[in-house]
């Protein structure tokens, strides 16, 4: 892991920037280079100390480690040329929220062994280099896909790194990952965005409605602050699974509506009680 | 406000218990009596110091102040006999989450002036006397309905109390309250319960799904820990408004599903961007 001298982070947003801050902390001898399509983000990231220097795609041959933290549709496009550009000893880790298409994109790439598909289950509703924070990944789950296709030595170094960052490791098939994550992450974002929309639409005619909002509403609608530029590609790449989870969610809401409409309060009660054990399931998550 | 010597709290749960704790703190000379249908809750509340003594309905004639904090359908039933039972100088404050039916229930009651209809926008997802915490109401909004029907002197004392508790006061028509609160509170609970249900159903077949849940899911699903015994009556009493908000929510989710299904990613993006300004609306709420 100490071999990671020159670290390049492609995409200096919430995830890439937070990763850069942590890498700098645990590998103080390394130099952190940032590459981003936004010049503003790059100069902001240098100013904030998130990265040491801004850099360019052409310099990737110098990299020992590359973190790919760009929108997931871009990751599918950029990962093959990134692998083309790096040296034989370098490791590329993609940290996007969908894993199927990015794994498929490099399945037969000659440098497939230099790639590790990862998804850190960590984040906030904020975005850009100013959202980058230290210790974002501590005690969080890191999902790794198709580790059998990554070079053993490079994988070992990556695992050392995740251990120093105090992450829990889970191994998954990339398409299982995408199916599951649609339920426990992607659907939450849609439910939150559409809840926000419903209340905002109502508020156009009812001016004092937000005076009445409490911490419950704030919690449920928090993810509606998330960046559409991040989330549109996620919904696109994971379309089938997201549609499946969304359809089930709408079915459940419609059932709840129907039993309430029918004054079946025993069933209204049961619907909630049967979900109450989410308490124990979520223990430890906050 | 110092005249509130004997304070009776009917319903020693999250809201009633927290109110009891705060009243004891700001009125240390007063005696706090609890009345509850659950003997367990009463002895628990005495043990925890939430109330000084457990008491009974028959003792209400001794009360200077009564806090009615029982499920909203029960409040409609119990408020008239509570008003019958109290002395001429006592004040009864109902703190339930729906206000229309409880106001209607005592509109022509001879002691209507002894009643104040209130809704503190405060709470957590927990319930029972153990959930009662101090300072729950500090910096929160207190909605008051039909204050013109409350005796001027009693209202003045109540206002002094809310000021000491550091609450913000808003005045509303009870039926407007119920319409608005359906959007900013009741709907959030349904969205959260049904999100929990959708994921739990999926998890029956997919054992490791919750390993993948992060803080975003936890936040969105937090309200699904709420007590069905509290929330079933709320949905019952506010049925028409809840159904209206739920129908609009389902319509918005279905529209999102349709544009995603049609690969209209510009519209998917716009749907999220148009809701993003919830950021500024929610400023200060957490």
UniProtKB/TrEMBL annotation, chains A, B:
UniProt superkingdom: Bacteria
UniProt keyword annotation of Oxidoreductase present: yes
Location of the Prephenate/arogenate dehydrogenase domain: 5-286
Signal peptide: none
PROSITE patterns, sorted: PDH_ADH
One annotated GO biological process: tyrosine biosynthetic process
Keyword Transmembrane helix: no
Keywords from the named record: Oxidoreductase
GO molecular function ontology, one term from the record: prephenate dehydrogenase (NADP+) activity
Protein name as it appears in the record: Prephenate dehydrogenase
